[in-house]
Request: fold
Amino acid sequence: AQSVTQLDSQVPVFEEAPVELRCNYSSSVSVYLFWYVQYPNQGLQLLLKYLSGSTLVKGINGFEAEFNKSQTSFHLRKPSVHISDTAEYFCAVTYYGGTSYGKLTFGQGTILTVHP
Amino acid sequence: NAGVMQNPRHLVRRRGQEARLRCSPMKGHSHVYWYRQLPEEGLKFMVYLQKENIIDESGMPKERFSAEFPKEGPSILRIQQVVRGDSAAYFCASSPGDNLRSYEQYFGPGTRLTVT
Reply:
């Protein structure tokens, strides 16, 4: 069975500071990894994904994430945050093949609050 | 290209009534997933459908919940005899269903169900 752990439930940070949101997963098979962002009362927007290839993936809004297979981690980073990045961020995993069918297992979410 | 559409956005039902949630996938997408976001529990997979077929309903409660994705028209998540514990945000996601892109899911804005 897959599981995803987001190590921080809330991350406060000042504007223009760097930020890292941590995500660890457990799976006995190869996985695809995703980060989604959810603004208040809205749906989820795909930030970035790792399917294969380079372990450093770049997404929208200046975010990037690094897939580390040995540490089973997929941490999300941004070198300089803006007020508009305030939102809840979800890490998600699926595995390919078998009976996965692409269904996503989500972490509990990390609320990022950017202060002026 | 319109995104995933869900309606209604907000739905209030009294205990014992039926709730019908609709999801129109993105144009060209033939795969639909339903997820539920309960307070304090995060996002959980419910069911995965293709046109006229339920592929994986491992996340659906055994009673009162059903889903369909007919040949024509939107996917529908139906909850019979709602109870207060059904109050949640219900999200639909669609994917293209072809090769690697089948693992990219695009979410709708959600339906927020309140049971009084």
About this structure: Chain B touches chain A through 27 residues (CB under 8 Å). The mean pLDDT of chain B is 92.
